[in-house]
Amino acid sequence: MTGGTRTSIGRHCSTIVGGDGTPLLICPRDWDGPILERKEIPGNAECGAQYSGMPLVIVPLSGHGKRRFRSGSTIQEFDTAPPNILIYGETFERDHGLWKGEAGESITLTLPSAVTTRYCKDDRSSYRFNTRFNNDDPWLRNSIITLAEEIQSAFPNGRLFSEGLSIAIVGWLVARYGDKAQRNPSVLRGFSSAQKARIEDFIDSHLDQNMSIERMASEVSMSPRLFSRFFSISYGQSPHRYLMRKRIVRAKQLMRCQSELSILEVALHTGFSSQAHFCFAFRKYCGETPTAWRYGL
């Protein structure tokens, strides 16, 4: 496609749909993290003027080829192929784009400024990202793919896991691709004793409720990103893993002491969104199903 009207980057790429005609990957309406989509990568194609508008990460899953972008008098030519990823800053613009190669598929992650600000509000780093092509970044690539799979599969590890992964991805982007990023020395320490007591009391008294990292972070007046980093230093594990272990310990207590409760009731009493989520987590951490554990099968 060509023409004089500016469009957002990726608009020319078709969304990948399933057998029912709906997008394979679509974020739920109540999802307030980064926006992920599965997109086709064109083989031989071209487009006119395009802009990013907000930070955009493209993770190619298949396909390869040569790219030629023109912005004013500047021309950029490069090859693209997995596993390298492309990062567009929010101010990136090009007048013309040309693709030649083999078509493929990709995952795109779009990062609205409101998400970055909410996750990293007490970070001293710049939230502006530089455009960089062909980045060899296995951690970022694998994390975005994992997050996409979680969302596409309706969060089998729970919303808290995906929230924590989103925060880690945004923090990684800020620290490594932000413009004039500066490390905050305070992240090298963990929580104070008073903060740990407050966090543990909050978690213990809300185990039966839906919990988010953002809500836990507000108990100690921190951003989700800084809270997650302090938490890992203080407890040697992520908030998600800590909470899952706490919930499973509570679930075992209920199954041992209140035999009249069904597996579904145990799940709901310990903050799991469903019986399936509880059984998935229990097997992951204990190596057997709740029923097998309860009856010693």
UniProtKB/TrEMBL annotation:
One of its GO terms (molecular function) is DNA-binding transcription factor activity. It comes from the Bacteria. Keywords: DNA-binding, Transcription, Transcription regulation. PROSITE patterns: HTH_ARAC_FAMILY_1, HTH_ARAC_FAMILY_2. The keyword Nucleotide-binding does not apply. Coiled coil: none annotated. Residues 197-296 form the HTH araC/xylS-type domain. The keyword Transcription applies. This is AraC-type DNA-binding protein. It comes from Propionivibrio dicarboxylicus.
